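Predict the 3D structure for this chain.
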Amino acid sequence: MVRAAVLPAVGGPLEITGIELPQPGPGRVRVRLAAAGVCHSDLSLSNGTMRVPVPAVLGHEGAGTVVSVGEGVTHVAPGDGVVLNWAPSCGSCPACARGEVWLCANALTGSGDVYARRADDGTDLYPGLNVAAFAEETVVAASCVLPAPEGVPLTDAALLGCAVLTGYGAVHHAARVRPGETVAVFGVGGVGLAALQAARIAGAERIVAVDVSPAKEELARRAGATDYLLASDATSREIRALTDKQGVDVAVECVGRAVTIRAAWDATRRGGRTTVVGIGGKDQQVTFNALELFHWGRTLSGCVYGNTNPAEDLPVLAEHVRSGRLDLGALVTERIALEGIPAAFDTMLAGRGGRALVVF
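Done. Predicted structure below.
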C-alpha cells in the first residue's frame, strides 16, 4: 500500500488515503516518486474545466526512481531515475505521422484505464493524465517514462515534465522567439516563470512580465523579466509605451482567460505573434472583428504541451540546467507534502506563488 491524493468526484475535496498498486505487467513500469509539481491543469481536472474519469489520482508533473518493470521494458531498469511523460505519442496517428507528436490523438487513452484500487474499500481508480503522480508510487505505461537527465536532481527534474517543457516550448517552438525580439508573458505561475527564462535564453531584448500580484515581481525579474506590470485594463497600452508604441514581437498567454488572451493580442505589434498556453473553460469566449484581423496581421495560435517532443527536448533542457542558463529552483515557491495539495490549489486560485512542489 502507498499513500496518494485521490479525487473521489469532480468538484470534491482531495482525500489522502492508501491505494493498492498492481505489479507492473507487460509494457508497464512502477516508479517511486521523488517529487511532483502541482500544476494548474490538476486544478482544472479537479473542478471539471477539463474532463477526467473519477475517482482518480491526479498529478502529471513528476520524477522518481524505477522500482520494477514488466515484460518487454528495456529502455529503463530498476534503480534508474526517470521523468514522467504524461502525453506519450503513439507514433502512428495522423498527427504523429506529421511529426506533431504534441497533438497525438491517442496520448491520453491510458487515463481511461483502471490502474489501482483504494486500499480501504477496493474502489477502482483512474490515473489522471496517465501518470497519477500525486502518490508515493505509481504504475505507468513504459511510454510514460523517460530517462532522467544526468546531473539534475530528481526533485528538480520533476519540473521538466510539464512546466518547463510547456513554457520553454511555447517560446522556442510555438512562438519561435528570435534574438533581439521583445516578449510579454501574461501570468507568472510555474509555466510563466519557465517562459520568462526561455525568452531570456532565446536572447529576447526586452521581456515584460504581467500578473495580478505585486508579490510576483521579484520572481519574474529573477527569471529574466526586464519589466513588470500589474494586470489592468491599461496593460496593453503600458506595453506599447515600453516598446515605442509598437507592441511586443511576441506575447505568451499563460492564464487561459478571455480577458488576458485579448490583452495579449492587443499588446502584440502589427505582424507579431500571440501564443496561448493557458487552458480556459468553454465559457471563456474571445471576440475579434474581421477588420482588426486584417489590419493587424497578427498570428494567434494555441500551444499544446509547448509543442514539444519530450524525448528530444529533455536533453536540451538538461544542458541548459547544467550550464546554469535555466534555474529550476527559481520556479518553486513552496515545497509541500501530499496533505498540502488542497492548500496549493487555493494558492493558485488566489493568484499567489509560482510552482508548489510535492516532495516525497
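The chain has a mean pLDDT of 96.
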